[in-house]
Amino acid sequence: MPAARSARAPWRSLLGIVFIAHGVITLAAAVVLAMLPAAIPATVGIELGPDGYLLSYFLAAAELAIGVLSLGAARLTDPTAVGLIVATFVVFHLATALLELVFLFSAAPSAVLVGNLVVRLVAAVVFVVAWRFWRRRAASASA
Length: 143
Hints:
Elements: H1 14-35, H2 39-42, H3 53-73, H4 79-106, H5 111-142
Helix pairs in contact: 1-3, 1-5, 3-4, 4-5
């Protein structure tokens, strides 16, 4: 069996818990964005009328795809694939946090937006830490 396949599936580890929790939360966001397209923007003071619902639908589709990827990643054992998925999620959350910060400089301060920014930063750190633990265990399992 190749070394890349001998790693333990993440779902049996902290990384697996992170992937599954991330997937469930992201899928929930997709459902809310699809069913109530103005609800999430309203939490940060953005009024979205029916003409703007398409933006929420696009975001719902992206959230759905990210959620499915996150749930699927919990079953992977290839360290390269798992690392790429973690890197993608870290970039997604850090880029979102940066864009929220840019928005905060041009809009009225919002506790919800600041809270979401912090959650994004924490999510990125949690993914990196959980991945490092999983990778260390995967390396020792293949040795």
